[in-house]
Inverse folding.
């Protein structure tokens, strides 16, 4: 746990250093996406999108908006993890000297799995997170009981603070379409403020023939995202985020995607973890999500 803490801290410090050092400057959009945009015909659509961002920045500068302000040049990073080991979480909990509120400093957002919050009366984890002021997330599966979800929401967010609770949807595409509408409507009937987050890295990982490695299809992730957006569009709820298993490395753990011509034998995770999106696949998926959000706003697709 100590080693994991140090590695997490170092990773977050690197992210902050890149952000503060200008790498996150939105005017660098072309350089972020250069390889992605040049290597495929489909990538030209994303180059057009980057060109439109450039055009918007030039327009802002022309009318006197300072595009060198921090809001354009850097971004803030926040981290989350599953709240599992209470001795670890407790050791990193501190009281704010001004407000007197308690915060778990191991992460910004704490995530609870379904078994952890289902039995409210006997869950030490629920008691712990109920005493800190961090934002929280409840992970729900196709086995979720809407009544138990509502009870957990009331227990953890009694004042219905809109910034307190998120719900991470951890279901297959079919389960999202059949189970999620009922849950969303139950939350809406009770007027509970939650943020809906998709977790499309669930339900389609398969073992290789030797049983050692895991593989996953990029199309499965897209199917889960489509189902998530479709259900929220149908129920009038707002999609608040997407949780992805990804790495910036040029790995080939998932088959599929415009940029990744990977066959079944190549698409394996070699380090024992669930298959992750490679850097290029993650970027491609980010653009697909952006296009879906444009449709929600009545904007045309990127041509």
């Amino acid at each position: 746990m100590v080693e994991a803490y140090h590695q997490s801290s170092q990773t977050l410090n690197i992210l902050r250093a890149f952000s503060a050092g200008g790498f996150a400057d939105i005017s660098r959009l072309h350089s972020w996406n250069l390889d992605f945009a040049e290597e495929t015909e489909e990538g030209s659509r994303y180059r057009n999108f980057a060109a439109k961002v450039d055009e918007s920045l030039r327009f802002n500068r022309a009318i006197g908006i300072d595009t060198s302000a921090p809001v354009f040049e850097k971004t803030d990073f926040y981290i989350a993890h599953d709240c599992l080991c209470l001795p670890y979480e407790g050791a990193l909990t501190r009281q704010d000297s001004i407000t007197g509120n308690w915060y778990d400093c191991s992460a910004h957002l704490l995530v609870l799995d379904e078994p952890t919050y289902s039995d409210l009366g006997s869950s030490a984890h629920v008691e712990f997170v109920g005493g800190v002021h961090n934002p929280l997330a409840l992970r729900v599966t196709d086995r979720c009981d809407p009544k138990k979800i509502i009870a957990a929401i009331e227990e953890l967010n009694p004042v219905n603070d809109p910034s307190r609770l998120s719900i991470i949807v951890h279901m297959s595409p079919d389960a999202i379409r059949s189970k999620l509408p009922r849950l969303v409507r139950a939350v809406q009937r009770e007027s509970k403020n939650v943020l809906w987050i998709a977790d499309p890295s669930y339900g389609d990982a398969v073992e290789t023939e030797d049983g050692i490695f895991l593989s996953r299809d990029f199309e499965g992730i897209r199917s889960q995202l489509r189902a998530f957006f479709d259900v929220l569009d149908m129920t009038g709820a707002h999609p608040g985020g997407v949780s992805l298993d990804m790495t910036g490395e040029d790995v080939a753990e998932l088959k599929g995607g415009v940029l990744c011509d990977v066959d079944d034998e190549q698409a394996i995770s070699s380090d024992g973890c669930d298959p992750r999106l490679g850097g290029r696949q993650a970027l491609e998926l980010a653009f697909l999500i952006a296009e879906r959000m444009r449709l929600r706003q009545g904007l045309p697709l990127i041509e």
Summary: The longest strand covers residues 136-140.
